[in-house]
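ARCHIVE ENTRY
Sequence with per-residue tokens
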Amino acid sequence: MKYTNILSYLLVILLLVTVLTGCADSSSQPEDPLADYVEMLNGDIPEDLRLTIYYMDPTILTLRALSAEDLISFPETKKIVVESDELLANFEALKKLDPSELVPAIVTSYINARMYYVLEAGESGKLLEVTISEIRGNVVVNGMEVEFDPVFYELIEPFWTEEARIMYDWRKET
């Protein structure tokens, strides 16, 4: 009988801990994950803007799914760094992303990163961070998982190398 009471108390405590730790403070999370990006597009463009694109051949098989961090350090990963001058010359491409048209993922998927890019500026930090899962999987944009949209490729297409352009020709029928 004594062990039953102790077990009951432990279960209640475990339930309380689970409930209390699961309740996140919604005020600590940004309401619009793309607010800084939109503000940059509509305001003063930082002089130290930089786009870094990491990508690998989407047909390469890996032993496990890759996160964005894994992709960056994976031996087969290629890297493109686009400095401010080139970004400004192709700035219209960056305006193709309309946050109001993003569709939150109904079914979250197992992200297996094959392309990751980040647009950042010195003081502002990361303005846009995109992880693309394989060719047509869901996309994670500033921490929010959304449905695939070709705009995520169109946004950075002017900055691709010829090799990346061939690998990620999303217009192909698959």
In short: The radius of gyration is 21 Å. The mean pLDDT is 81. The CA atoms of residues 61 and 112 lie 10 Å apart. The beta strands are 50-55, 78-82, 113-121, 125-133, 139-141, 144-146.
